[in-house]
Write a structure and sequence with these properties.
Blueprint: H1 3-17, H2 22-39, H3 49-70, H4 72-89, H5 92-121
Helix pairs in contact: 1-2, 3-4, 3-5, 4-5
Amino acid sequence: MNAPVRNALERRCRLLLRAYPARYRRERGEEILGTALESVPPGRNWPAPREAGGLILGGLRARAAQGRREGTAASLRQAAMFEHVVRAVLPTTVVAEAMAVIKTLRRQRSSKRSLFAARLLD
């Protein structure tokens, strides 16, 4: 792969890695980047939509796990921020998958709070 294409591809993969929390990127970013770069066929300057979607969904999952530790407000802020990023970068089908993950996380949080409140009132 020639250098300009490789540099553009690496920049774009790093952009997709922004979906992951900073600490996660510091610890595992180079490994994920290497895997992402290896998966792209020679001559392409963007990962396949499925690969790009996988990176972003992986980042959303990592942020959701972080949000569970930090609380609901942090999770909702992150979800709203990534909704805008995902809509700008990915095809509609991948956006729909990401939004389904976010909605599921919101429902799980809401049902857990409802169960907790019901137990308190019993």
